[in-house]
Structures are given as structure tokens and as C-alpha cells.
Design goal:
Elements lengths: L14 H37 L1 E5 L14 E5 L14 E5 L14 H11 L9 E9 L3 E4 L7 E2 L2 E2 L16 E4 L4 E5 L21 E2 L3 E10 L5 E2 L9
């Protein structure tokens, strides 16, 4: 007679039970690393945008044919950081508060911060107070429109403007101004479609943009890919 008690059978777990917990932990770790990498990349891009180069979306036809609606230009924020000053012919992006648009109380809150961050990354249109124009006159310049041949003249010298929109006159509004030191006289390349310094002649500041309101120089077109290259390909140059 066999009196040996039968050995109790050990339970066998399914193959997935032993692997479930490690796999779940691995997925959580992967997502955490991905999220941290995304935050780090966003922070890096925001720092780059704030201090080195910032994308700027062209919102209007005022700079045609040099810049088209929807172009993303890369604004060189170091261009004027080390003693250099904006020069005639430069394409600049500037804050028009106090010159092109009235001073307004600063808006706060998370929405304003988020919009500013999205705009700084080039994923949204620019602020209503940011503009892109071409420098025509710098501090001390005597700018006249127009001479006997219908051209702009700076300090008595006719200004060649190969960047003008085909068929546009240099200006249909006659003017003569002396640019105060520390300010700029700016105009669009598509003169008939540009609201620029001419439109603010009778306002405080007289249409002049303070140099310290310049955000940077628009040096490159980054998007669309078909237009990659230097932003000013019309021969405007610096004078």
C-alpha cells in the first residue's frame, strides 16, 4: 500500500504574467524619457529664438517681391548685438509699439505667454506689433521723395532700388525728412501695399523707428523649401 501523499502541484503562471510588470515599467520609463526630451528640445528652441535666431512669418504683401506671404524668415538677433547698427538696405524686424502702433497696457496670463512662445517658434503669425521693413534712412540722413527723375534721394544722392515691386513708384506721397539720431526711416518694397514710416508722419515719433526697438535682421528664408536662401536676393544690400 502506497502511503506517500501526493506532492502538491505548483501553480504555473501564464507567460504574460511574469512579463507584464517589467514591460509596463519599461513603457512608463520610455514615455517619461520622451516627454523630458521634448521639454528639453522646446526649451532649447525657445532660448535659441530669444537670443540667437527667431523664425518670423511674413503676414502681408508689403515686402513683395523680396518676401512673400507665408514665408518664414530667420531673424538674426546677433546682427546688432555687438556695436553694429542697422544700415540702409537692411531688412529688419522690429517692435512697432510707440511708433507704428499705440502704446498698450501689457497683457498677461497663460494665454499671452503661450501665444508668445508659439509665435517665437514660428508656428503662429507674428504679434500685431511686430513688423518687417527695409531701412531707407538712418540717423542723420536727409531722405527726399522724390527727385526730378521720380527717385528717392538720401543725402542728395539718388537711391537705386532694384528691390521695388514691378510697376510701383518709389512713393506716391511726397516727403522730406531728416532722420533723428537713434532712429530709422523704414519702408516696404511693395510701396503701394505697405503701411510704413510714410503713414505715421503726422503722429508722435513721425514714423521713425527707435533703433532699440529692432529685434534683428531678416537674413534668410527658411520656409518654404523652394525659397531657401538669403532673404534679400534682389540686390538691395547694405549702403
Amino acid at each position: 500500500m502506497d502511503t506517500e501523499a501526493p506532492h502538491p502541484q505548483r501553480g504555473h503562471s501564464s507567460p504574460d504574467e511574469g512579463e507584464g510588470r517589467p514591460r509596463s515599467a519599461f513603457l512608463r520609463l520610455t514615455w517619461r524619457r520622451t516627454a523630458l526630451l521634448g521639454v528639453a528640445c522646446t526649451a532649447f528652441l525657445l532660448l535659441l529664438s530669444n537670443f540667437v535666431v527667431q523664425p518670423f512669418q511674413i503676414p502681408s504683401t508689403s515686402m513683395e517681391p523680396t518676401l512673400a506671404v507665408g514665408d518664414r524668415v530667420l531673424v538674426n538677433k546677433l546682427a546688432y548685438r555687438f556695436g553694429n547698427q542697422p544700415a540702409r538696405g537692411d531688412l529688419i524686424v522690429f517692435d512697432g509699439t510707440g511708433s507704428f502702433v499705440p502704446e498698450r497696457p501689457e497683457g498677461g496670463g497663460p494665454g499671452a505667454v503661450l501665444r508668445g512662445a508659439v509665435s517665437a517658434l514660428g508656428l503662429a503669425g507674428p504679434s500685431d506689433s511686430d513688423f518687417v521693413k527695409r531701412v531707407v534712412g538712418v540717423g542723420g540722413d536727409d531722405v527726399v521723395c522724390c527727385d526730378a527723375a521720380g527717385r528717392l534721394a538720401v543725402n542728395g544722392v539718388p537711391l537705386p532700388e532694384p528691390y521695388l515691386y514691378p510697376g510701383d513708384a518709389p512713393s506716391k506721397v511726397p516727403f522730406r525728412i531728416v532722420v533723428p539720431l537713434g532712429t530709422l526711416w523704414v519702408m516696404g518694397d511693395h510701396r503701394s501695399q505697405s503701411r510704413d514710416s510714410r503713414d505715421h508722419l503726422g503722429e508722435p515719433g513721425g514714423g521713425m523707428v527707435p533703433v532699440d526697438k529692432v529685434i534683428g535682421r531678416a537674413d534668410w528664408i527658411g520656409w518654404p523649401a523652394s525659397r531657401w536662401g538669403a532673404a534679400d536676393r534682389t540686390g538691395g544690400g547694405r549702403g
